[in-house]
Amino acid sequence: MQLFIGYHGTSKQNAINILKTSFTIDYKKIGWLGTGIYFYEENSEMAVEWALYKCKSAPKDVIRSEIKIPAEEVFDVSIPGSKDNRFFHELRRKLVEVELSKKNLDITVKNKKDFDGKTYNFICKTKGYKLVRAFTYTYTDQDRSTGLDSRVPNGIELCLKQPSYVQTKDSIYAKEDLI
């Protein structure tokens, strides 16, 4: 088993609901790492940054979670050249070739960023992975205001496909509002 500590930035109301029940997955939404619940690994500051951006004027919160998952259910592309990383890029290349030549797979996307997410979803569904781990870049307010961004990762994100692997969940701002 592997243990991950993840931080999930959200609105205060969503945090209250999550703490009372559980995390839920919006299966219509495809993120960078596919469909699932997103956490920043060992990085509460990035979760705060995300909550401040995503929730605008609503009160915000960050949930600290312990995620315990069998190692064989983790698809970790964080190391270039690793087995999982190579597999992702080989499959992605093949999917692009099929899409360009045969047009028979449903890998159309709303924007270019969705294609990787659909590739992760395909891999997780066919191989039984329940968590994707990857270095990512989360846009900052400065990026949004200047139009500049970076390709250099500023965190590790976890995309959990199975909420039952969350062992604990606690608000890190329970006594105060994140402004």
Describe this structure in words.
It comes from Cytobacillus spartinae. This is DUF3990 domain-containing protein. The chain is of the alpha+beta class and 179 residues long. The protein contains five helices and seven strands, in the order βαβαββααβαββ. Helix 3 (83-101) crosses helix 4. The termini are far apart.
At a glance:
With 179 residues, the protein is α+β, with helices and mostly antiparallel strands. 34% of the residues lie in helices and 26% in strands.
Keywords:
7 strands; globular; Phosphoenolpyruvate Carboxykinase, domain 3; 179 residues; alpha+beta; 26% strand; DUF3990 domain-containing protein; seven-stranded mixed β-sheet
Low-confidence runs of at least 5 consecutive residues: none
- CA radius of gyration is 17 Å
Strand order of the largest sheet: 4-5-6-2-1-3-7
Tell me which CATH architecture applies here. Answer: Alpha-Beta Complex
Give the helices and strands, then pairings.
Layout: E1 2-11, H1 12-20, E2 37-41, H2 44-54, E3 60-69, E4 74-76, H3 83-101, H4 112-127, E5 131-136, H5 141-146, E6 155-160, E7 166-171
Parallel strand pairs: 4-5
Antiparallel strand pairs: 1-2, 1-3, 2-6, 3-7, 5-6
Helix pairs in contact: 3-4
